Amino acid sequence: MTNTLEGKGVVVTGAGHGIGAAIAIRMAAEGARVVVNDLDAGAATVVAQKIGGHAVPGDAATEQGVDALVSAARRHLGGIDIYFANAGVDIGKGLDTPPEEWARALEVNLLAHVRAAQRLVPTWLSEGGGRFVVTASAAGLLTMLGNAPYSVSKHGAVAFAEWLCASYSHRGIVVQVICPEGVKTQMLDHAGPLRDLLSHDRVLEPEQVAETVWQGLQDDRFLILPHPEVKGYYEYRANNTDGWLAGMGKLQRRLDKSGIS
């Protein structure tokens, strides 16, 4: 049976550009009432106007920002049926990443999800259900060479989503993670020498990711994989961890020649 979104209240963070904007547009096309969040107030407003949604600009990672977003969304929508925790950052590099960049990566890519769930799950439990969808990246299942904070924080995002799913799925809460590789976004544009690695299989348009997300809503699958190849990599990593790490080491040696460590 198709999951209908007609009249459902949906929040999408980081929805001013890229994957978030595409998800917001796709959900609105299915009849959802969408709250568009982004740090870029102008971009959030443009997307909201395009889809007949409601813009709530702000930082969806901090305690105060999550409080403000959830409160504003509930006032506007009456209730939140689906929360797309999509906002993310790719700051940082290797062991030389400064503490403030580690902190920001963990704040946006992991703790934002924790804080949102803390505010949403109790209400969903009392109302009989809800859906929490995290944009985690293939880096959350595999690893991201050249960027330790991104890799670690995205792994944490997947781990938190797994915990939420295991803890609450039997009580009506659906938890899913979106794990794409290369997508035509600002993040890919700024990837530098890592762009080729991220584009190894192919680069998708944000709209293609949003379509895969829509399909994922139909069967409640935990892993939403816009690049199907990721499933094979993930299985190989689990079945042959040493072999996987040896292969990643070879890739790193290639990146070393480009000055990435």
Number of strands: 7
Estimated helix fraction: 40-55%
Strand order in the largest sheet:
3-2-1-4-5-6-7
- Unreliable residue runs: none
Based on the coordinates given, report the CATH architecture. Answer: 3-Layer(aba) Sandwich
General form? globular
Structural class: alpha/beta
Which strand-content bin applies to the residues? 5-15%
How many distinct domains?
1
- Rounded average pLDDT: 92
**Major sheet summary line:** 7 strands, parallel
Rg measurement, Å: 18 Å
Succession of helices and strands: EHEHEHEHEHEHHHEHH
Gap between N and C termini, in Å? 48 Å
The CATH superfamily title = NAD(P)-binding Rossmann-like Domain
Number of helices: 10
Q: Would you tell me which CATH topology applies?
A: Rossmann fold
CATH class: Alpha Beta
List the main descriptive attributes of the protein structure presented here.
single chain, 261 residues, alpha/beta, Rossmann fold, 7-stranded parallel β-sheet, 10 helices, 7 strands, 52% helix, 11% strand
Structure description:
The chain has helices at residues 18-29, 41-51, 63-77, 99-127, 148-168, 186-189, 195-198, 206-219, 229-239, 241-256, and strands spanning 9-12, 33-36, 54-55, 82-85, 130-135, 173-178, 223-224. The protein is α/β, with parallel strands linked by helices and 261 residues long. It has one domain (9-229): Rossmann fold (3-Layer(aba) Sandwich), CATH 3.40.50.720. Strands 3-2-1-4-5-6-7 form a seven-stranded parallel sheet, sandwiched between helices. Helix 1 (18-29) links the parallel strand 1 (9-12) and strand 2 (33-36). Helix 1 packs parallel to helix 2 (41-51), helix 1 packs across helix 8 (206-219) and helix 9 (229-239) crosses helix 10. It is globular. The model has no long low-confidence stretch (mean pLDDT 92).
